[in-house]
Each structure stands twice: as structure tokens, then as C-alpha cells.
What we know:
Helix content: 10-25%
Structural class: alpha+beta
Number of helices: 3
Oligomer: single chain
Number of strands: 9
Amino acid sequence: MNTIRRTLTLAAGLALVVALGGCGGDSGGPDCTANPAGPGCPPTPPPTPPPPITVAEGESALAFDELLRVPFETTRPGTLNGTVQWKSPSNGILVIVTNGVCTFDQLLAEQCALISTSLGTTPKPRRFSLSGRSAGPYTLFIGNIGPGDDSVSFRVELNATAAAAAAGAQATPAANPGTLDLKRFKRRVTLP
């Protein structure tokens, strides 16, 4: 019986020592509650960036030789990630992203600040990723260079920078993202 009592007393004593050791008293270690950046404290994790927000999204029929114009705006700096999908694998698709608002006439007159261009039947879907973009207006153009009519869908998302997230900037989609505008372009767009 004394052996059992001694074992229980020893176990209770060890439990008390463990419990008191976790209280953060004057154990000689760092007080990370009062000074989280102090020596011996784990580093503070970086702020979690907010989830991406959709700044332009839609779908449209797109006849041969037709150009779709989608102006959109971002509210903070970050990376623009876009996807353009079309139905017919035999059709060539033109995808252009410009900095700022760009009209059809300005694009055809080569007066827009192009930041991304691609043309062809592959890859399908077409994706772009534009890092280091400032907040402001942009324009997405999608053209069908044929040989046949088609339909397209698109989505552009903004992944805000960590600095913008840390500053607490609000991410809000544009009031009317993805305004669609169509025009025949007769393949007069020149790519760099």
C-alpha cells in the first residue's frame, strides 16, 4: 500500500511541477506575451494576404473577326491573373491587356499601353499573370481571328500585395466589372 501511495504522491508532484512550469513565471525564459519580437520568441508570421477578388468576369458570343472590349479597375496594387476560354480548338484567339482605359480606335491606332499580348489556338484556355501592377484602370481585349464563330468566357482576379494587405486596404470589386463591348476589327491589331 505504501508503494502505491508513494507512486501517487510522486505522480501528483510531477504534475504540479509541469503545470507550474507552463505558467510563464520567472523561469528565466523570454516573456513573449509582453514582447513578441524579443530574443528567443518565435517570429511573427507575415500577414495573410486576402483572397483574390474578381475584377472582371463574363462570357460572350464572339463572331469571326470580332473584338470584345472589357474595361475594369483595381482598387489596390497586386498581381492580375486572368483566364480566357473559348469553345472551338480550331479558332485562333487574340488576348490583349492594356494599362489604363483603351478604346477600340486607340487600340487599332496602336495608341494603348500594352502590358500583355498573346495570339493563337493554344494554349487553351489562355492564362496571364501580371505581377507588380498598380491600382487603377485596365482594359482586356479578346479577339476571334477565326476561322469560325465562337463563344468566349473570361475571368480576371486581383491578388493584392502583402504590403497592401498589411496596410488594411479594402479590396472591393468594381461597381460594374466586365462591361462588354463588341466591334469588328478586321485583324488590324498589330502585336509587338
